[in-house]
UniProtKB/TrEMBL annotation:
Protein name: TNase-like domain-containing protein
Gene3D superfamilies: 2.40.50.90
Pfam family for this entry, one: SNase
Record domain TNase-like: where: 57-149
InterPro entries the record matches: SNase_OB-fold_sf, Staphylococal_nuclease_OB-fold
Species in which this protein is naturally found: Paenochrobactrum glaciei
Amino acid sequence: MDSKVHLLKLNLAKLVRSNAKVNDSFFIVSVITISLFTLWDLSPAAAKPLCYNKVCVFDGDTISYGEERIRIANIDAPEISGAKCDAEKRLGLVAKNRLYILLKAGRLKIVRGDPIDGRKVDRYKRTLATILVNKKDVGEILIDEQLARPWSGKREPWCSTLKWQKNKPV
């Protein structure tokens, strides 16, 4: 595992030194995603929240800020604990880790309320909000990087859309 981490760090360092442009972001995210697929543990411990300061990331669309549990209103990210197939769980872990990296990258702003219908909380009593970091919508970033999709008003299955990955049940 340590050699894989070292190799990943070297590859990422090369990408950074190559002055990759915004247009290359899909390539960069693809390299990171493929690398992380080989590194991440799918054990129950891997589903624990990632925390820094007052922020904890539970999955690709759920965080907490202090005591407040927040659901990112404008996206649907793959499930981790409720995943229907291995591919969904893996992509859910990638989305969770990417969200953690995005949130740590700058100034966090929480815009409470669903931007479409104005609801303040979801059925699980989580605050609905758009999350901005350095004035950029992290939900839109996750969608652009194909780690989430726009919220359609209900959860949609992921396994049938992840055909490139072996879809064995979890």
